[in-house]
Design a protein that fits this description.
Elements (H helix, E strand, L loop, with lengths): L2 H20 L5 H4 L3 E4 L5 E6 L4 H9 L5 E8 L2 E4 L9 E8 L2 E4 L19 E5 L21 E5 L5 E3 L13 E5 L3 E4 L12 E3 L7 E2 L13 E3 L7 E2 L12 E3 L10 H4 L8 E3 L47 H7 L20
Parallel strand pairs: 2-3, 3-5, 4-6, 5-7, 7-8, 8-10, 9-11, 10-12, 12-14, 13-15, 14-16, 16-17
Antiparallel strand pairs: 1-2
Length: 350
Amino acid sequence: MTEMARFVILVTFCTLTALVTSQSCPATEDIAPCTCTVSGKGTVLVECARIDSEEILTRAVQGLKGYEIGYFKIVKSNLNSLPGGLFNGTKINRVEILSSVLNDLGPKDSNASPFTGLQDSLTELVIFSPMKSVKNWNWKHLSPLTKMKRLLINRCHNTLKVETGLSYVTSSPVTWFQFSTCCITDVRPGALDAYQNLEILDLMGNRLHTLRKTTLPKSAPNLKKIELSRNMISIIEADTFTHLPALKEIYLESNDIAYIYKDVFGDMWDRMERLVLKDNSIVCDINLVWIVGRKMIYDNADRVPLQCDYPATLTGRSIKTLTKEELRAVGVVHRPARKDDNNYFCTDTE
């Protein structure tokens, strides 16, 4: 056997060994009380449940060094914060914090991020927990995550504002940003400007009343879908969406929208694929004349035609059956009383 053949065999063996190692679990005692399983597809899943000590969590996470972890979950735990340097030396693709209490993302009086060391591996951070503390989090701890593509935050159950602190994720290529069911009342101008690579923006289930251009990223040339259903939106300012050239879908189901104005949707109508307006209070009057004969993009996902709620003479009529003559004859119909501000998603506000 030649030296070259021996070298090829050695390289092949080392490669296969590395692959096997990356798809195996650490020793149980090294990560206790966390547990580890390997899925049928070879993905390593680690779950740490009911953890109430930062020291215990740190010791368990250190046992993950040398292993490639597909999913790392913290479940039903109660922690003051994630310890600084928690994940240093590990390789994890997705971190999930579920049904837990976390007062801050990282140490309150320190810049030592728990996510340091994950900059080359972590692509998804998922936080689905009913926590009031989210509004006080130091988002700067996310700054090491330069490869993160999905930041999903759901059910924080608090009245809060999306602050400009989120702009610390400036070097991250996030394509899917979700901040839903968190009772958000406002998105500060510039808060989402760092997210220039967005393809999906999900702010469903909050308390937004007014939608304006500064609510959205200043520049997001690839943003295709905006989810704003189950808010309290009654006002959409003119030209809110005109700076988003790739936008194809807008979901506004279950808001308090009365008018479909041309200065909001007109310039983008022909390139849009879906505008969901189900469960609003749509007024069919002379302001709707511009839509007659245009492409129908306003049916909901079940393909049920959008209907008029007002005036009484047109209640229940499908918008696609209206004529310009009918709408001109109606004239201007004043907006009806707005819906109650109660939002059943926001059940634990301060």
